[in-house]
Design a protein that fits this description.
Layout lengths: L2 H17 L5 E3 L2 E5 L2 H12 L1 H16 L12 H4 L4 H20 L6 H28 L3 H7 L4 H21 L13
Antiparallel strand pairs: 1-2
Length: 187
Amino acid sequence: MKLKDMMYIAMFTAVVAALGLIPPIPVPFIPVPITAQTFGVMLAGAVLGAKRGGLSLLVFVLLVAAGAPILAGFRGGIGILVGNSGGYIMSWPIAAFVIGYLVEKYWDRLSLANMILFNVIGGIIVVYLGGITYLSFLTDTPWLAVATGNLAFIPGDLVKVVAASVIAIRLKKAYPIIQSKNKPKAA
């Protein structure tokens, strides 16, 4: 792996950690708070692509597991990953990878509408599937009941999707990190 790739991975790990400085918003009927960090997950995949985006969130999750207090509310440790929020957090590398994969696949014809769709698929659907399934299993609550509780997250997540998509499209034009499959890569 090139040094440049490692720097991008580290930078987006830090971006997601910095978004953890924004205090979490507790939701009264589900034991998982609303945080700004999924915005970073979407940006990592959309800006870095599948491999680098997924790796940046994998590094983030490993830092959390090691005890680094980089989650919203200055939380960290393996206990968080085996607790109520664990399924959501552990799905972040997969979500960034999925977003990045879709962005790379459609790079040459990428539009804001595509980017919004890809962020919804990875940043909402993948994260919700992982988080809801894990929380349902952990709390022995029916999957549909947990999914219904997650409806509270959708308005904020849609705002994050649009914001991440607009930023990613602008970065694609100004400073593309992902390279087109049809053009030779720059050295």
